[in-house]
Amino acid sequence: MKPTSSRSPVQHDAVDALIAYHDRTKHHLERYARGPGGLDWATQPDPFRRFTGSPVSRLPLAGRDDTPTSGVLFGTEVSSPRPFTLGALGLFFELSLGLSARKEVAGSGWYLRMNPSSGNLHPTEAYAVLSALAGLPGGPGVYHYAPLHHALEQRARWATPTEPDESGFWVGLTSIPWREAWKYGERAFRYCQRDVGHALAALRFAAAVLGWRVRLLFQCGDAELARLLGLDRTEDFGDTEREIAGLLARVIVKEIPGQGPAFPATAPLEWFGRANSLSPSRVQWSAIDEAIARSQRIAVSVEPTEPANPTAWSPPAPPHCDRSSGQLIRQRRSAVDFDGITSVSRDTFLAVLDTTLPRPSAPPFDAWPFPPRLNLVLFAHRVTGLEPGLYLWLRAPGDLETLRGAFRAGFEWESDPSRDVPLVRLGRGDVRDFARTLSCHQDIAADGAFSLGMLGRFETVLRERGAAAYRELFWEAGMIGQTLYLAADAAGVRGTGIGCYFDDVLHRALGLAGHEWQSLYHFTVGGPVEDPRLRTSPPYAQLDHDTR
Ligand SMILES: Cc1cc2nc3c(=O)[nH]c(=O)nc-3n(C[C@H](O)[C@H](O)[C@H](O)COP(=O)(O)O)c2cc1C
Fold it and tell me: What is the pTM of this model?
């Protein structure tokens, strides 16, 4: 792979094009971003891709919960690595991307998964690139993970019948943009990228349960990933929905000193399977095609120049939780409503936020090779011991002075000298109505204990790192979202990602102009109200019990 320069004129065009995409896909108070204007149920995409004709290997489902305490998820404990077996691989996929429940109401049913997804549409697909593994008859090759059946579908068989590689394997993530565009229209590309970030963090959390680690391969380009995973095989995809490259991550089972994660050497002998069609027809959103093309990741061989962990944070201090790591992952759900009553203590609030700080040996940000670009703008509604109001949580404390210069005058900029936490008070007052309006008038942003927007350094990052950084910013946002989901559950409350918000309403309130800072994802945390009409049943009841 050849190193590339991020400063070519082509790249600047691409960055301009992505900024234009970002602007045109903003929701405004008086007008939402271009969408389908209603849901066409006849073309609702199938959330489960299958490869017809591929050899299928069922993965074992976990039986009794023998996972370590939830401290392993937040870096307060480390569990000793489990050997790389089919059973361990099954648990890894079950806890990261597997089904978590089946929901039913009034005769219709749907599945939830360990990883959340905007609209439960699940654009993300996953592939494992494996060496020989006992119990996997297909041998070394590329496998698609099929969550509905908790199975691996073999896409490619490799020439080299290598010895088992006990040091680990690779996972590739891809997106099928049509699944999101069906509901969200032009804004869907943003959603796909956030969901990739959620999935990456979900992989990292599942790895932590097994005592394994995950590392994003920043070097990997779209073309190389498409070739590795067979996404470029038109003979297998025909005119089915487009599936685009996301990212490649190395799952490290056993650390080998001096050996960093490298791109897999491939020699496919044979390909199997044809992708199923997900909808009878689809709408082409050219703005999305343009965003995909312009944000294409080009293979690089130069390490990121900035340190991934510029701040030496004190050891992790997550919410206290007695549940096992497996239980916590399995119970994650989005709240559809909050009670408007439940509060969290100031300590709990800080403990939840603490999990979002990037530390070199705490999941999930130890998988992330780039410095933190996103800070949190907090709307504190019901935090005992903290005045309601507007706050900043500085994941990148070095941004403080730049933000102070960029925000309008009149904010307090008050930090708490008694505590070593990156919390800054901007203003006191009831911000519930503002938070609700900002989040497309959704009550969940006001009825919880607190909600937040993830404010990312935007234009400079794109100009310096290149247009592909547009995707990376949303991946980072998704990782923060996944972390907040688990941290909220650990604290005995619940979270919900918010992709529907009026971008510039927040920017204007803060006094931000231009594109240097953009809010890339919102989130809310509080006491959930369950919908009593919904029936919940276990996820894999449809599978034979003998596979459990
Ligand atoms: C990127 C993203 C954006 C989301 N945006 C919203 C939102 O604006 N409003 C909302 O009520 N839920 C939102 N959700 C929650 C999803 O609807 C939820 O994840 C999905 O229905 C699956 O349910 P689960 O999270 O309980 O598995 C969002 C989730 C994600 C990951």
Answer: 0.97
